[in-house]
UniProtKB/TrEMBL annotation:
The name this protein goes by in its record: Beta-glucoside PTS system IIABC component
GO cellular component, one term: plasma membrane
Record has Coiled coil as a keyword: yes
PANTHER family documented for this protein: PHOSPHOTRANSFERASE SYSTEM TRANSPORT PROTEIN (PTHR30175), PTS SYSTEM ARBUTIN-, CELLOBIOSE-, AND SALICIN-SPECIFIC EIIBC COMPONENT-RELATED (PTHR30175:SF1)
Residue span(s) of domain PTS EIIC type-1: 1-227
PROSITE patterns: PTS_EIIC_TYPE_1
Regions crossing the membrane: 6-25, 37-56, 76-97, 106-126, 192-214
MF (Gene Ontology): protein-phosphocysteine-trehalose phosphotransferase system transporter activity
Domain of life (superkingdom): Bacteria
GO biological process: phosphoenolpyruvate-dependent sugar phosphotransferase system; trehalose transport
């Protein structure tokens, strides 16, 4: 009975409300898209990937496609299928500049899906957790939209997404309402060429912004100073120099430890590179062993129906290969390399960890001098901890500590 009522509420109450919200949202974004000189479509394009995150892109996409299916080409349709080129450019740049080989492997693995319009792996797996690459991708998408509107590159046909959405552009399509007039009429070849050009621009802008402006590792000194500035704000200190004097030793230590930070970064980079190579070998080994196992099963079935010495010998050879197969030479070489790297950096790593522990203990003692409430003290310590452990956070050895100040404290 309860289930029946739930279905009734879902279909006859919530569904109409959801449809109304979708309709209002579509109209609102259509009005935004109508802002002249390309500013509207640029804003719409910037907002599209954030809409993907909250799940509103699907109903909006349906509304746009419904309009196209009725014979009315849509500029917003072009916006709908193309923002991922900005995200794609950002993720490729990130894959190139990162020193974390695990991240590089994951970033490149998202590219094929991105080419075909599936941006969720790029967004949730790589760009969004790092925030700035995601924003840079959105900026790249909005830059391109000026071209879309001013060149009148509207979408004419229903179809798929990604690179295959190029087939959706044809000003001469039979499905277009005869009463609809394009601002600019293109041949299909010319329109496809222009769409590819704008896609290339979007990808390039996303790539270049990320490549030149994204810093994978936070600057330890600058981030530590950020915590000190919070203390100055919370204590309403008029003399900034007095507060800075308390942390002068720690600031100098961090500044003088830049070489150690770089050595530690190099250490984790080498470790991640070797670990990725080992993982690739294991993947290859697993794939080949699975193929051998399938062949063994096929031979086993044949031997059940027909005893054959030749088949039996082949089975034995494959069975021995399955039992002993492995990339032992390559694996041993990499394992030895891994052991060597760990040994070479052991002393440096111990000294570096001792340095960080000392800084953390000293800052805790200094913070007791200031009249900070519990939340303020905790959040300031979190900022300092994140600053000191920037390398480990960059390589995902540690998780970044959350910094959540109350609104009046921000």
């Amino acid at each position: 009975m309860i289930l029946n009522y739930s279905w009734f509420i879902l279909w006859f109450a919530l569904a109409p409300i959801a449809s109304l919200i979708e309709f209002v949202l579509f109209k609102l974004l259509t009005l935004i898209g109508n802002i002249p000189y390309g500013f509207g479509t640029a804003l719409f394009a910037f907002l599209w990937q954030p809409l993907v995150i909250i799940g509103w892109h699907t109903p909006l996409g349906v509304a746009i496609d419904t309009s196209i299916s009725s014979g009315t080409p849509q500029l917003l349709g072009t916006v709908n299928v193309t923002p991922y080129w900005g995200q794609l450019g950002a993720v490729v740049a990130l894959a190139i500049i990162t020193k974390n080989m695990s991240l590089r492997k994951m970033a490149f693995a998202t590219v094929p899906a991105g080419i075909f319009g599936i941006t969720e792996p790029i967004i949730y797996g790589v760009n969004l957790p790092r925030v700035k690459p995601f924003i840079y991708g959105c900026v790249a998408a909005s830059v391109r939209r000026f071209l879309i509107e001013n060149l009148d590159l509207d979408m004419d046909i229903m179809g798929t997404f990604g690179i295959l959405s190029i087939l959706r552009f044809n000003d001469s399509a039979w499905s277009i309402n005869p009463e609809f007039n394009h601002a600019i009429n293109y041949s299909q070849g010319a329109e496809i060429g222009l769409v590819f050009l704008t896609w290339s621009i979007t990808f390039t802008v996303g790539f270049l912004i990320t490549f030149f402006f994204y810093k994978e590792r936070k600057n330890e000194l600058s981030y530590f100073k950020k915590a000190i500035n919070k203390i100055i704000k919370f204590t309403n200190s008029e003399n900034k120099k007095d507060v800075l004097k308390n942390f002068q030793k720690q600031l100098e230590s961090i500044k003088n430890s830049e070489i150690n930070y770089k050595k530690t970064e190099k250490y984790y980079s080498q470790i991640s590179k070797i670990e990725v190579k080992l993982a690739i070998i294991e993947e290859k080994k697993s794939k080949i062993r699975n193929n051998i196992f399938k062949k063994l099963n096929q031979l086993k079935l044949k031997l059940q129906f027909k005893e054959n010495e030749k088949l039996y010998n082949k089975f034995q050879i494959l069975n021995n290969k399955y039992s002993t197969f492995g990339y032992d030479t390559e694996k041993n070489k990499l394992q030895n390399e891994l052991t060597s790297v760990i040994s070479d950096y052991k002393q440096n790593l111990n000294d570096f960890n001792n340095f960080k522990e000392e800084i953390i203990l000293e800052t805790k003692q200094i913070l007791k001098k200031f009249k900070l409430n519990k939340n303020q003290s905790e959040q300031v310590q979190n900022i300092m901890w994140n600053a000191i452990n920037s390398v480990e956070i960059c390589f995902e050895i540690f998780d970044s500590k959350n910094v959540n100040f109350k609104k009046r404290e921000q």
